[in-house]
Automatic annotation (TrEMBL):
<keyword id="KW-0642">Proline metabolism</keyword>
<dbReference type="InterPro" id="IPR029041">
    <property type="entry name" value="FAD-linked_oxidoreductase-like"/>
</dbReference>
<dbReference type="Pfam" id="PF01619">
    <property type="entry name" value="Pro_dh"/>
</dbReference>
<protein>
    <recommendedName>
        <fullName>proline dehydrogenase</fullName>
        <ecNumber>1.5.5.2</ecNumber>
    </recommendedName>
</protein>
<keyword id="KW-0285">Flavoprotein</keyword>
<dbReference type="InterPro" id="IPR002872">
    <property type="entry name" value="Proline_DH_dom"/>
</dbReference>
<feature type="domain" description="Proline dehydrogenase">
    <location>
        <begin position="43"/>
        <end position="277"/>
    </location>
</feature>
<dbReference type="InterPro" id="IPR015659">
    <property type="entry name" value="Proline_oxidase"/>
</dbReference>
<dbReference type="InterPro" id="IPR008219">
    <property type="entry name" value="PRODH_bac_arc"/>
</dbReference>
<keyword id="KW-0274">FAD</keyword>
<keyword id="KW-0547">Nucleotide-binding</keyword>
<comment type="pathway">
    <text>Amino-acid degradation; L-proline degradation into L-glutamate; L-glutamate from L-proline: step 1/2.</text>
</comment>
<keyword id="KW-0560">Oxidoreductase</keyword>
Length: 306
């Protein structure tokens, strides 16, 4: 109930204005959100690139029910791909299918996705399709595989969630077809029969998938802020004899920046997921839920200028 209430508040325009008008909250938002529009998101990418970190831009939000809003979101992804190419930035674009119309109409969503991928093919860009709640899993897999076969693995990749029960075969099947996978533990509240609930079970599934992905994947990405999972990934990489540039660590913008910079200093590839515009207040609420209360005051201090 608390989580639902927080997300409901985050979608209200007055709540967003309150954040922007409250210095402590505004500073926190600046740490976890790329900004209100594409120029601000691109500025965040430039600052990260200057520190050796790559970017993945996401016009934030999901579960759009207005066809015009879905079209605007697709247009944002297209504009981002063009600006990334024009400015020579090291960045991808991430999209959620429900942001570009999946809840409105399947054909509409597919059309928007193909428009985005036409632009990616034209600009040499790359688009990652985010995974959402389990009820969208089969449709997301189908649309991704159609897109991969049409545009190639160099243009489109997918996110998979390790905490889902009975879905380990998805990873093997996708790797058999040369898919580019971003692996996460899982980020949605799911029923017990759908997803592992205990942290030990989730961690064990994630470790198994990390090893499989590193052993067989093309440009694999491991998305985690868990220091133990990072250490496990590094150990597997060394055991398999892989170079440090054979894969990427991926993390959320503003979450554990010290770990991100340490990995870069150690020679690893790091990419930050940068939400901007759209429904970014919901992302901020999600980030704040990850932070122990005692750290909020320290995090609210003015961020260093880069």
């Amino acid at each position: 109930m608390i989580r639902k209430t927080a997300l409901l508040l985050a979608r209200q325009s007055w709540f967003r204005k309150t954040i922007l008008g409250t210095p402590v909250l505004r500073d926190l938002a600046g740490r976890f959100v790329g900004g209100d529009d594409l120029p601000a998101g691109l500025a965040a990418v430039r600052a990260l690139n200057a520190r050796g970190i790559k970017g993945s831009l996401n016009f934030h939000g999901m579960h759009v029910e207005d066809p015009e809003e879905a079209a605007r979101a697709a247009g944002q992804a297209i504009d981002a791909l063009r600006r990334i190419r024009a400015e020579g930035l090291d960045a991808h674009v991430s999209v959620k299918l429900t942001k570009i119309g999946l809840d409105v109409d399947l054909a509409l969503c597919r059309d928007h996705l193909h428009r985005i991928l036409d632009c990616a093919a034209e600009t040499g860009g790359f688009v990652r399709i985010d995974m959402e709640e389990s009820r969208y899993l089969e449709t997301t897999l189908q649309m991704f595989e159609e897109a991969r076969d049409r545009y190639g693995a160099g243009s489109v990749g997918l996110v998979l969630q390790s905490y889902l029960r009975h879905r380990s075969g998805d990873l093997d099947r996708l790797l058999d077809r040369g898919s580019r996978i971003r692996l996460v533990k899982g980020g949605y509240r799911e029923p017990r029969d759908v997803a592992f609930q205990a942290a030990a079970e989730v961690d064990a599934a994630f470790r198994r998938d990390i090893e499989r992905l590193l052993a067989r994947g093309i440009s694999p990405a491991i998305a985690t802020h868990d220091a133990e999972a990072v250490a496990w990934t590094r150990a597997v990489q060394e055991r398999l004899g892989l170079g440090k540039d054979a894969f990427e660590f991926q993390m959320l913008y503003g979450v554990k920046p010290e770990l991100q910079e340490q990995l870069v200093a150690d020679g690893y590839q790091v990419r930050c997921y940068i939400p901007y515009g759209g429904d970014w207040a919901t992302h901020l609420v999600g980030c704040l839920r990850r932070i122990p209360a005692g750290l909020l005051t320290r995090l609210a201090r003015p961020a260093p200028r880069t």
